Amino acid sequence: MALLATTLLFLGLVLLWLAGRQRRATGLPGGQVIYADTRNWAPVEQPLYAADLDLSGRPDYLVQHGDMVIPVEVKSSRVAEAPYDSHIFQLAAYCYLVGKSYGVRPAHGILKYPNRTYRIDYTPELEANLVDLVVEMRAKGHLRKINRSHESPRRCDHCGYRSTCDQRL
After folding, report:
1. What residues are paired with 110 via a beta bridge?
2. In which band, very low, low, confident or very high, does the pLDDT at 36 lie, cut at 50, 70 and 90?
3. Nearest Cα to 34, choosing from 83, 69, 82?
4. Which residues form the domain of 89?
5. Quick one: pLDDT at residue 143?
6. Does 152 map to a domain?
7. Which of 14, 62, 110, 142 is deepest in the core (most CB within 10 A)?
8. 43 assigned to some structural domain
9. Based on the structure, what is the number of domains in the chain?
10. Does 42 have pLDDT greater than 50?
């Protein structure tokens, strides 16, 4: 009987260790997943919405961690040295939407790449930059031609619009 109890205890500890390892591999923080916008989960949740910026979005995951709701964005491409600014602003938009939708401002969000995971602090400065960016995008939305940013030749090389872009590198 003692051998059975010891074996079951050992098996339980191994399963707990494997579950923790799998959670760390997903990049999700500890807590309960309360929202998922992936095809693996059904039904797909409604988008979050903030009327003041007329902004909506669907983060890949929202994780309830204590009183805070943390947005998690999972990217399929690898990242070399640091997350792309566009990904940071996308995550900032989800942080903004979470704050408006749940009434509690998240302190951070998570960007998960296949090779790295980043915790991005949602600072008042990042929020102000996000709001400025949204306002600028709305102001320029009516323009027929907007010059593209070409600070990354590698990114330009892999762009889906490269064949028709008159500003490609």
Report:
1. 72, 119
2. low
3. 69
4. 25-141
5. 65
6. no
7. 62
8. yes
9. 1
10. no
The tokens describing 115, both together, are 């090779």
Per-residue pLDDT, 167:
74
Has residue 169 been placed in a domain? no
Rounded to the nearest 10 degrees, the angle between the axes of helix 85-102 and helix 124-140 is: 100
Q: Which of 37-51, 92-106, 140-154 is the most confident on average?
A: 92-106
* Distance from C-alpha of 28 to C-alpha of 24, rounded to nearest angstrom: 7
Q: What is the 3-state secondary structure (H, E, C) of 79-111?
A: CCCCCCHHHHHHHHHHHHHHHHHHCCCCCEEEE
Say if residues 71 and 59 touch (Cβ distance below 8 Å): yes
Q: Classify burial at 73, counting beta carbons within 10 Å of its beta carbon; exposed 0-12, middle 13-18, buried 19 or more.
A: buried
Q: Judge if pTM exceeds 0.85.
A: no
Number of H helices, E strands in the chain: 4, 7
d(Cα 64, Cα 102) in Å, to the nearest integer? 11
The CATH number of residue 82's host domain is 3.90.320.10
> Which two tokens mark 77?
């491409």
* Digit-coded pLDDT (tens) for 58-104: 898 899 888 899 999 999 888 878 899 999 999 999 999 999 999 99
